[in-house]
Amino acid sequence: MPNFNNGMNPVVHFEMPAEDRKRMIDFYTKAFGWQAKQMGAEYGDYVVVTTSESDPSDMSGRPKNPGMINGGFYQKTDDTMSQYPSVVIAVEDLKESIEKVKSAGGKIHGEIQDIPNVGMFVSVIDTEGNRISMLQPKMVS
């Protein structure tokens, strides 16, 4: 779980769209040595991408080394907001953070999703039209 004691919400994950996830996996594993794991239908066939050593017992793929992030590939769709890379920001309280985003001029894009073994997730459109996401991580025991 990220440390929120300093009052800042850290970037904990990146996401990139793919027209062909297998082709994208092949590229990033060959070009950068990343590891990829295709998730099942219950995860929307998402691909978890490991760019840094992670704890194998932690389903969220959190890196062991501070300051590093891992990511994922998702299916590109006709939705304009799904066609560009995005970052995921960890928050302590998703509902409270949604209200802060709205009061700061941002918009919520889509519905809150409960990602099994990971946490609560929602996409946001910032004041400049960028899609970012927020994640309230599940507590890891």
Task: Give your account of this protein's structure.
The chain is of the alpha+beta class. The protein has a single domain (11-137), classed as Roll (2,3-Dihydroxybiphenyl 1,2-Dioxygenase, domain 1). It is built from two helices and eight strands, in the order E-H-E-E-E-E-H-E-E-E. The chain has an eight-stranded mixed beta sheet, covered by helices on one side. Strand 6 and strand 7 form a beta hairpin. The mean pLDDT is 88.
Give a quick precis of the structure:
With 141 residues, the protein is of the alpha+beta class.
List the helices and strands and how they pair.
Layout: E1 11-18, H1 21-32, E2 35-38, E3 47-50, E4 70-75, E5 86-90, H2 94-103, E6 107-115, E7 119-125, E8 131-137
Parallel strand pairs: 1-4, 5-8
Antiparallel strand pairs: 1-5, 2-3, 3-4, 6-7, 7-8
Identify the CATH homologous superfamily. Answer: 2,3-Dihydroxybiphenyl 1,2-Dioxygenase, domain 1
How big is the Rg? 15 Å
Strand fraction equals 35-45%
CATH first level: which class?
Answer: Alpha Beta
Helix tally? 2
